[in-house]
Amino acid sequence: MQALVTGGAGFIGSHLVRRLLAEHHGVTVIDDFSTGHREWIPDDTTVIDGDLTDQATVDDAMTDCLDVVYHLASRKAVNDDNPRSQFSKNTEMTQTVLDAVQKAEVPELVFTSTSTVYGEAPRPTPEDYAPLEPISAYGASKLACEALLSVAAHTTSLTVYNVRFANIVGPRLRGAVIPDFIEKLRDDPDWLEILGNGRQEKSYMHIEDCLDAIEYVRTHATGPFATYNLGTRTTTSVNRIADIVCDELGVDPEYKYTGGERGWTGDVPKMCLSIEKLAALGREPTMSSDKAVQQATRELAAEL
User: Is 138 a catalytic residue?
Assistant: First the structure.
C-alpha cells in the first residue's frame, strides 16, 4: 500500500507512520513542522516540508499512485487564541487535500475528527447524536471538515473513513494534561496546579488501541462516509489523573485548583463516546481509560 500522511510529524501521525512502515507500506509525510517533530519520523520516510494550504505542494505530494490518504494535520488547540484563523486554516487544509485527492483519484481518505464536534452532549454519545453543537472553534472546524468530506464521498467514488477521537494518550504526547502534570511535578513536587475543579471527566484511549481501531475501521467499514467513535467505555477524572501521575512519580503534592467546571474556554468538562458501533464492527479497546492513563504516564515519564 502507498499512503500519504498529513501531519505525520505530530503525536498521532508519527506513531501511525511507524506502524505503516512496520507493516511494509510505502509512506510519504507532508508537514509544515509548526508543531511536529522531524526526529519523530523514521529516516526511511519520504518527507515533504510544506504548507497544506498550498495547492501545488499538495498536488505534487500525490503524484505517485496512492492507495490512501490519512489526513491528520490541523491546528488542534481547543482554546486557540485566534479562533477565526484556526477555523479558516483547518477547513482550507482539508479542502486543499480533498481537491488533490480527487485530482489524483485516490480511492480512500481517513479523516481524524474529534469528540468536540458533539459539544456538551449526553453520555455515552453515539455517532448519530444530534444536534451537533460544538463549543470551540476547533470543534466547529472539524465538523465543517466532516461536511466537506461528506459531500465528496456522496458525489464521487471517494470513500471517507471519519474517526472521532476521545482523548488519545501515549508516548510523544505534548500539550495535554498528563505531560503537563509530569513537567509541573518535576519542577516542584510539593504542589500541583489543576485547571478547573478537577472533576472534569473524560475518556482516554491509548495510542496503540487508537491505531488498531483506525486500521480496523479502514479495512472493515463500508462507505461512502463511514463515521466511527474511537474511545473507551470508561472515563477518568482530572483528579484521578493527578493521583495516577503522582503515584507513578512517587510524590505526594498538595493540589491547588484554578476553579470552575472547565479547564479553559471551550473545554467540554465531561465526555464519553459510545463505542457500540465500533464494537458491532468487531473491535474493542484493550485498555480501560484508567489503564491507558497509567500506561501513558509511565511512557511519558521515561521520555520527558
Answer: yes
